[in-house]
Each structure stands twice: as C-alpha cells, then as structure tokens.
Design a protein that fits this description.
The protein has 364 residues and is of the alpha/beta class. It is 40% helix and 13% strand. Strand 8 and strand 9 form a beta hairpin.
C-alpha cells in the first residue's frame, strides 16, 4: 500500500472528527501553542500508518548518518530529525553511543519501526593498518647511523645471528589485525542492539597479479570476510547488507545469503556512472530487487550531491523507476543524509522528493 495513501486516509479521518466538534469554536479562548501539535490519537494513527507502510512491499530508502557530534547544537545533528519514511539508518560512528542517541533510536523504532545498522569497510580497516605501520616506522629506524646505514650490531639478533634480509619474505601482519577489528566491529551489533550490519568490501581485484601477490590478497580477503561469514551463521535474524566490489568475489556464499546488496555510486558525478555500479552487480547475476544504489548528498561544505544540474538524490529516484531486465530495482541509500537538512522551504527537501518519487501519491 502507498505511504501517502495510508497517511492521507489517516489524516482525513482526524479532520472529520475535528469538524464534528465545530460548535466549540464559537468560544474565544487564549492561544494554546500545544494545540499546534496533533493530538495523541491522531499521532498514534499516523505512526501506525507509517509502520504499516514499512511492512509493505516498496522500494527502500536508507540513510547513512554522521553521528559524530555527541552534544548537538543543531537540529540535523539529531538522529530523530530524519524523515520518518526512511526505512533504515546506518550510523557512521557505531560505537560509544550516548544516552541521547539511544533514546532517539528507541523512540523512532517504537513509533515508525525504523531500523538501525552499524557498518565496517575493508578500506577503513586497511587505512587503520597502514596508519599503525607508519606510526611504528620511527622506532624501527631508531637504530640507523646518521649516514643512513645500520650498525653491524643492529643487523644481528641476540644470538649474534643475522636477522631477516631483504631477500626473505616478510610476514603480512594485516590479516590478524583485520580479523580482530572486524570481529570488534560486528560485535557492536549486539553491544548496542543494532538491527543488523553493513559490510563494505572495497578491496583490490585479484586480476592481473602475480602468484605471490594473489596469495597475499586472498589472505587479506579471508581475514575480512571470514568473520562476516561466521557472524552471519550466528545472527540469522539480523539484517546483513553487503556493498562495494561484490562482483569481484568468486565465492557467493555471503552475497547469496545476505538481505540486500549495495552498489556504491557515492563517488559518481553523473547518473550514468552511478548506474554503472548497479549494472555491474546485476550483470554478475544478482536480481535487481536485492540491489540498492548508494549515492551521496552534498558534503559538509556543500560540494557534490549533484548529477549535472539536478540533485543526485532525485535523479537516482527517477532512474530507479525505470524498468530493469531482472525486475524492479530495490531502492537507494543516501550517504551524508544529514547534509540535506537545510533548505529555505522544506527540510530534507531532496530526500523527501526522492521518497515521493519512489512512492508517489495515487492522486498525483
């Protein structure tokens, strides 16, 4: 059932009840600012209508929200400021949630059945690893002589034997680091009561690499995806969304068993480029109704978020209505959704327009 149709019927009923009491209007009373809000019964009917829509078959709209501000000074820094028609919200800072955040999430869950997800990305874990290695380099180079040469004593271990040489293979410490971090990130789902997790695999391709390099990259992939496979086995009732370069994966165990796939068009500057990420997954054998296209609202400085002269959000929503060879397209994810808040006429203007395009009123 259409969201606007459900809500319009709810509000029509509320207006009818209000008009039946028009005799009360003849008495002049002081302005009660509390009456500006819907009464409890009307609000309860509206919330029930949204929950009914949420459970219906429709194209999904997800938002990725930057919750890094723990003491907000602006309304868009609140989780509950998001439009109530958003199906799921991914929190960019999923750990160390404050009491206010937990309260807002609980209220939105109870009122609108909004779902909340934590996330982990391969590129983020890899960046953490690279930073940790860069921080250790000064200590490793502390034994060098002023001219850059290492002393003979530093070239030997405690037994007087030579240490590893340039010709000997270096052990890759990333897999152990990665597996530990992914276990921690997935554990946040239980720790904070999330409804599921989003896993972005944006690692490198194995094509056109040598045998040794291929083995190294495969070990890194397994370190990232292995914990996800084990988590899924123990959390069948939770949501699992996979995003990124999923067409590069030969093993379809995770992709076939997840709930939705995310085509990552967040870096695209044109609709064609964003659509290409969707088609890559569809051409890899995934049905269109399982694929959500991720695009981005403008960044904090107002840059991006447009495809030509049109908002990337509304352009994507219009594109999602076009037929696909494998069926109806699943929906969209809006990154940086908090940055769409400010507008002179309507908060979250482009987000609301995108929702209305995907789920239009039957009267339009």
């Amino acid at each position: 059932m259409n969201l606007k149709h459900i809500i319009s019927q709810t509000l029509l009923l509320a207006v009818t009840v209000a008009l039946s009491a028009c005799d009360d209007w003849t008495e002049i009373r002081p302005l009660d600012t509390g009456s500006q809000r819907p009464d409890a019964a009307t609000e309860a009917m509206y919330e029930a209508a949204v929950r009914e829509f949420r459970a219906s078959d429709h194209q999904l709209v997800l938002g990725r929200f930057d919750n890094s501000v723990k003491v907000p000074s602006l309304r868009p820094q609140h989780i509950d400021a998001l439009p109530d028609s958003i199906d799921m919200v991914i929190l960019a800072r999923p750990d160390s949630l404050c009491e206010r955040e937990l309260d807002e999430m609980r209220e939105m869950r109870e009122a609108y059945a909004t779902k909340y997800l934590c996330e982990v990305a391969y590129s983020y874990v890899e960046a953490l690893w690279n930073d940790s290695q860069a921080a250790e380099e000064p200590e490793e180079n502390a034994g060098e002589e002023p001219d850059g040469e290492t002393s003979a004593a530093d070239g030997e271990n405690g037994d007087g034997e030579g240490g590893p040489t340039a010709d000997e293979p270096q052990t890759d410490g990333f897999p152990a680091f990665c597996a530990e971090y992914v276990d921690y990130a997935l554990g946040l789902c239980d720790k904070w009561g999330y409804d599921g997790v989003v896993v972005w695999f944006d690692g490198p391709s194995l094509d056109f690499v040598g045998e040794a390099e291929r083995a190294r990259l495969e070990a890194r992939r397994e370190a990232f995806l292995g914990p996800v496979t084990r988590w899924r086995e123990g959390h069948a009732a939770k949501l699992l969304l996979l995003g990124g370069s999923l067409d590069l994966l030969d093993d379809r165990t995770l992709t076939d068993g997840c709930d939705y796939l995310l085509a990552d068009g967040r870096g695209a500057s044109a609709m064609g480029s964003a659509a290409e990420t969707f088609f890559r997954l569809e051409n890899a054998g995934f049905a269109a109704d399982r694929i959500l296209l991720a695009v981005s609202a403008p960044d904090a400085l107002g840059a991006g978020g447009e495809f030509g002269l049109q908002s990337a959000l509304t352009a994507t929503a219009e594109w999602l209505l076009e037929p696909s060879r494998t069926g109806r397209k699943g929906g969209m994810l809006i990154d940086n959704i908090q940055n769409d808040y400010f507008d002179t006429g309507l908060i979250f203007r482009n987000t609301r327009k995108a929702i209305d395009i995907l789920n239009p009123s039957p009267n339009n």
